[in-house]
Design goal:
- Helices cover 94% and strands 0% of the residues.
- The chain has one helix and no strands.
- The longest helix is centred in the middle third of the chain and has 117 residues, at 7-123.
- The radius of gyration is 52 Å and the shape is rod-shaped.
- The N and C termini lie far apart (174 Å).
Length: 124
């Protein structure tokens, strides 16, 4: 036996269902709006991060270019230092040769002077 439901009860039930459905739809719309806002915030954050990464990348490129320039200058300094070291070694060798020659000349001069002094003593 089925109970007969009156039309008023059916309409009342439908209105209650529609009311609940409307509330649920409103909640879903609010949730969708919140999710859209969250997505927009996330997109803005991603754009900011990408911009920051681009700036960091550009900064790193500039620093790398500076580093390469400095590296070239260091190579020049090392090359110049090597050349200077070679020149110093050459000058030291020349100084040693000049000292030896000067010493030899002094020795020869002393011997010649001594010989002349002795010779002059014998001649007197």
């Amino acid at each position: 036996m089925e109970e007969e439901v009156s039309v008023y009860e059916q309409v009342d039930h439908l209105q209650h269902y529609v009311g609940q459905t409307h509330d649920v739809l409103t909640q879903h719309e609010q949730r969708i709006q919140q999710l859209e806002n969250d997505v927009h915030e996330l997109l803005e954050t991603i754009h900011k991060l990408l911009d920051g990464q681009k700036e960091e990348k550009d900064s790193m490129k500039r620093k790398l270019a500076e580093f390469e320039g400095l590296q070239g200058k260091v190579k020049e300094v090392v090359h110049t230092a090597t050349e200077s070291g070679r020149m110093v070694n050459t000058l030291e060798k020349r100084m040693d040769n000049v000292k030896k020659d000067a010493f030899s000349s002094v020795v020869i001069s002393v011997i010649a002077f001594s010989f002349l002094v002795i010779l002059s003593l014998f001649l007197r």
